[in-house]
Amino acid sequence: MRILFIILLFLINSCATPYQPNSFGGGYSSIQLDKHIFKINFDGNGYSNKQRIEDFALLRSAQITLQNDFKYFIIIDKDNSTSYSAFTTPQTTTTTGNISDYNYGYGSNYNFTANSYNSGGNTHLISKPSSNNIIACFKEKPKIKGLIYDAEFISNSIRDQYNLNNKLH
What we know:
Distance between the termini: 40 Å
Helix content: 25-40%
Largest sheet: 5 strands, antiparallel
Oligomer: single chain
Number of strands: 7
């Protein structure tokens, strides 16, 4: 049972949304709102957990900062949400039978036995997390109250955590 759980956990993690541009299976997108303001979105698929998606949105925020020649960023607005949907598998019934012929010299007697099996009809809940950041970027560390992120540090830290290569996307 423990081995089955480990295999299942591995399969779920291997199917989670990778760090990639947005596609059918999820990913990141961004838009520039002003010369130093950006909106970053990261959508997960049904195999992604909330923390992974939040981390990837933060990673993308750091990379957008660096790609636009800034060093620091702050998160002006953040929205983490999850959308839900359900899928019900089709229900099927399979019947197998056996006919036996017994001949006792008086004609034939037939005996029929059957077994029916139902499968499917299960409903699965699918949750897809997403994370949105609106960030302000700075070339020098701003003298403001609040959490100020060092983009290079964040990028390296999250890449190490998820074993991503060092190439910026």
